[in-house]
Fold ATP-dependent DNA helicase RecG.
Amino acid sequence: MSISLFQIPLTKLQGVGPRKAGELHALGISSVGDLIEYYPFRYEDYRIRDLREVKDGERITIQGKIASMPSLQRFGGKSRLICRVMVDATLVTAVWFNRGFLKEQLALEREITLTGKWDQRRRQLTVADSEFPDRGGAKTGTLQPVYSVGGDMTQAAMRGLIEKALIQFGDYIPEILPTELTDKHGLMARKDAIAGIHRPENTRDGQEARRRMVYEELFLFQLKLQAYRAMHARKSDGLVHTVDNDEIRTFVGALPFELTGSQKQVINEILHDMKQPYVMNRLLQGDVGSGKTVVAAVALYATVRAGHQGALMVPTEILAEQHARSLGKMFESYGIQVGLLTGSVTERKRRDLIASLQMGLLDIVVGTHALIQEDVFFRSLGLVVTDEQHRFGVNQRSILRRKGMNPDVLTMTATPIPRTLAITVFGDMDVSTLRERPKGRKPIKTYSVKHELMDRVLGFIRKETSAGRQTFFICPLIEESEKLDVQNAIDLHIQLSQALPELTIGLLHGRMTATEKEETMAEFAAGKTHVLVSTTVIEVGVDVPNATLMIVMDADRFGLSQLHQLRGRVGRGEHQSYCILIADPKSENGQERMRAMTETDDGFEISRRDLEIRGPGEFFGTKQSGMPEFRLANLLNDFEVLEQARDDAAALTSSEAFWSSPGYGSLRDYLARESQHRDEPLD
Ligand code: ADP
Ligand code: MG
C-alpha cells in the first residue's frame, strides 16, 4: 500500500514551517491529507454580471472603464474614495471605504473589475474587492472558495496553502470508490473532484465535483452502516424465539378490538425476525394514534411465551406508568408479571424488582432510562422495545442491548420520518410502517385562533364536557425554564377554575412528585376530571380515548412535530375530536406552523414540513439523534443520492467478493479505520 496523504506532515509543504503548521493544527488540520480535504463552505462569485439582470442589494462583479477623476474624502481616521465607472451603457458610482491608496491607480479610461453590493436606486456599488485586468485580475471570472478560518489564518493564506498542497500532492490523491460505481454513476476521479471543489473553473465543473464527493460521502456512510449490519447477519448469534402461532392468534383474538391490516402486517414482520437466528433491529414507525402499543404487546407476549423476558423503555415516567398499567391489565389473565422501574420507585422496591428480574420472576419490565442503570440485569432478556425512540440516544439503546445476550430490538417512533431520513439515521435498521389508523377514527378538526377568542374557547370546553368528553389544556412553553412552565400551569389552572367553576379541573406539571402525577393522570383517565391543565409532560404517548378537545396556549412557541404530538393526545376514540391552537397572529413563522397544522393531520406530511422549516439538524435535536454531520451532503437536497448510495452499499456488502477480493481492500481498510472510532465495538 502506498503512503497515505494523512501521514504526510504539513511541514512537507513548501513554505510551511512549524508556525504555519501550528495555526493549521488549531483548525483541526494536522496532515497534508487533512488540508486537502478541508472543503470550502461556500464560494464567492467573481463572474461578471450584466447590470440589467441584477437585483437591488445583490453582491455582484461588474467590469467597466473609469469615467471620472476619483475623489477622496477623509473623516476621522476613515476615508471614502468615490469614482464613476462606465459599465456598458450605465454610469455607475463606485465607492470604496478605507482604500485611499487606490486613488493613484484610478486613471481615466483604465479597465477595472469591481465586486460589491449593488444599490439599484443610486446605481452605486459599495466595493469589497477590485482588480485591474491589465494586471492579471486573477479572481475575475472565477468562483473563489471560502474556508472556515480563524486565529491568525486569513482567507487568502488558506487559499494559498490549499492551492500549494494541490499542486504538490494533488496527483497522489487515491481513488477510493470501486470503478464499477464511478462508471455506473458517471463520477469524475477523486483527485479531480477534490481539486474541483477547491477551484471550480466554472459552475458545471464545480457541480460535477460536488456531485462526486457528495456521493462518496453518503456512500461511505452507508457502507459503514451496511457492513455493520451484514456482519451481524452473518454471525447468526441472535436469540431464536420459538413462537407458537396459535398462541399468538389466541392472544390477538382476545383483544378488545380487531387489529388493522397494517398492524397484522408489521406483527408478522416482527415475529418473522424474532424467529430468525440473527438479531432483530427493527424500526416501527407509525403516526400518533396508529396503535403501536398493541404491536409491542404482541411482540412482548411472544418473547415471554418463548421463555424470555421483555423490556419496554419509554421517555417519561407518566408514559411508563401508563404502559405498565395497560400491559399489566392485558397480560393479567395469562399469568405474565409486569413490573415498573422509574427514577421515583423507592429504593426497596427497586432492589426487589432487580432481584426478580435477575431470578426471572418478572417477565416484563416497563421503565424510563432507569432501566439502563448498571445494576439492572436480566435472567434472559429476549426483546427490548423502546417507545418514542427519538428521545433516546444511540448509546443508551446499545447499553440496554448489552444487558441481554443479544436481545432482539424493536424501536418505535411516532415522529414519522421521511423515508430517506430514516435510511440515514437508522440505516442499519429494517423499517416497518403502520400506514392506517384504526377504523372509525375521524380526522381531528384543527383551528388556529387569537387570544381574544378565549370566551368562545371556554364555551367549547363547556360543550364537550356536557357531551361527556374531556379536555387537555396545554400551557405555554417557556424555553429553558421549567420553573416558569410550572408557574404558568398553576396560573392557568387558577384562571380556568374561576372561569369554569362548575367543572373539575386537574393540574399536571413536572415539579409534582411521581405519586401526585400518577394520581392526577389516573383521575383524568377515569373521567373524574373534566379538564386537565398540563405542561408538555403529556406530550408523548398519553392515551385517554375519551378526551376529545386539545387546546394549546401560545401555540406559536411550539415546534411543528411537537404540536402534532400534542394533537395526537385526542382523536384516539370514536368521537369527533378537536384541536384549538391559540396563537399570536403576528408571529410570522408561527403562522406558517399553524397553517401546516390546520391543513393536514398526516404525520408524514407534518414532519416533511417541519424538516423544511427547521432543517435536519434541528429536526432531530443534536445530541440524542445520532444524526450524522455531513461535510458536503445536504440531506434535504441530496435525498436521491442518499438512496442510491444506500442501495449500492447494500449490494456491495452482501456480495462475497466485497469481503475477500483484493479490489475492495481500500474500502475494507476504510471500514477497519472507522470502526476504531466507534463508541461500541463492531460485534
Ligand atoms: P400510538 O401509536 O400513538 O402509540 P396507541 O398504541 O396508544 O397509539 O393506540 C391508540 C389508541 O388506539 C389506544 O387507545 C388503543 O387501545 C387503540 N387501538 C389500537 N389499535 C386499535 C385497533 N386496531 N382498533 C381500535 N382501536 C385500537
Ligand atoms: Mg404510543
In short: The chain has a mean pLDDT of 86. The first strand starts at residue 42 and ends at 45.
